[in-house]
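User: Just a sanity check before I run the rest of the batch. Below are the structure tokens for the first item. I only need the designed sequence back.
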């Protein structure tokens, strides 16, 4: 039974981490895309 709890806790942590990571990646992509668009718009100045 304790082993099952360890797996459940590990799964919960992994799920939270992947959720956080996905949000961070999305923010990074949005920021990166915005930066590239800004560079193109300003002519790379």
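Assistant: Here's the designed sequence for the first item:
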């Amino acid at each position: 039974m304790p082993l099952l709890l360890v797996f459940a806790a590990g799964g919960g942590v992994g799920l939270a981490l992947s959720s956080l990571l996905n949000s961070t990646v999305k923010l990074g992509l949005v920021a990166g895309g915005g930066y590239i668009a800004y560079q193109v718009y300003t002519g790379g100045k």
